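#lab-general

N.A. 3:47 PM
ok so I finally got the sequence cleaned up, no stray characters, all 392 residues accounted for. can someone with queue access submit it? mine expired

B.Y. 3:52 PM
send it over

N.A. 3:53 PM
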Amino acid sequence: MCTRWSEPQWIREELRRRWDSGRILRALLTADDLFPLRLPLKRPKSNEVNANFAEISHWIKRLRDQSRQGIGFGYELIEKEMAHRQSGRNLLPTHAVIPTVRDALRLLKKEREADKFLEIAGTVAADWPPLREWAGRYPHKVLASGDDWNGILAVLRWFFAHPRCGLYLRQLDIPGVDTKFIEHRKGILTELLTIILPEETIDSSALSFEQRFGLRAKPVQVRMRLLDQAQYLQGLSDLTIPVEQLKNWSPAAERVFITENEINGLCFPDTGTSLVIFGLGYSVDILKEVAWLKEKNIYYWGDLDTHGFAMLDQVRSFLPQTCSMLMDESTLFRQRQLWSVEDQPFGGQLTRLTPEEHRLLCSLQDNTWGKGVRLEQERISFQQVKQFLSAL
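B.Y. 4:20 PM
back already:
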């Protein structure tokens, strides 16, 4: 079969592209100038006719056999008469025209999906007329949610009737809908609720679904250890506290150590009038809500790599008094045999480092001592940690 010219399969592939883009389904719902769809065919040139007359005849027959003329639906052919001095006058197909959206659907064998789309879109628009435009813009999202739509519409009705309810997601009493249903469909629910709810009931700056629509969010927990036995709380030293409660507590500790690694936090040495916060990673910025930290001496201990310095810079954005701990060139080279490789280094600029820290960051970014050099904080000897603390 010649691939130089447009075959019936090529016509179907062109339709498939328009189906995948949503254009064909959109044409079912909204005014659209897609149909009749006229597709120019790749066809033989006039100087090929004599040498390839038999092949061209077979090509024309294949097109005609699978056209509306041959099978009763689908595409129609526009043909142009071509005169040749040896083969005489012949009709050569120049375009395939798909007259209607239904012809396209039959060619693609997508009639069932199209009928399902129309059924769902009609139901959605009947409940929420503003969503008709959304359904036309995102028809494949409509189909992808399939049998979920009864539940989705129930959720929409509940949120419309109970704006910014202040409940946990688990507390919502929606017949036929459980917590997991909403959890797994936050993406599409966010899109739809943003359209149907009054603007004043939506916090458009919020990052989470719960905050955006006035639900009570799962408390953000901060884990810490009190490092001075004299400051234990009724014998308790290892505490996990919601950040909302942490804001209202002002411990007697004068120094606060912040470290990313959980094990380092768990085995951090006892130190007078001190506590250690650990395990937050890049989420460390939740501590900006804790005002009493601004009154403490802060030490940040991160990995000796580019991301460690990025997190140090992040902490200093809201706790500018922060000092780094064991994040210097001397510490790096003392444990050279324990270096590993940072797979995806941070390549940006940081503005809150000391001159010494900035020089070390640049050396790491420039691969001065090897590609992606890093020293993970848990590889630093416990003795070095004790020496650092004893010098404070």
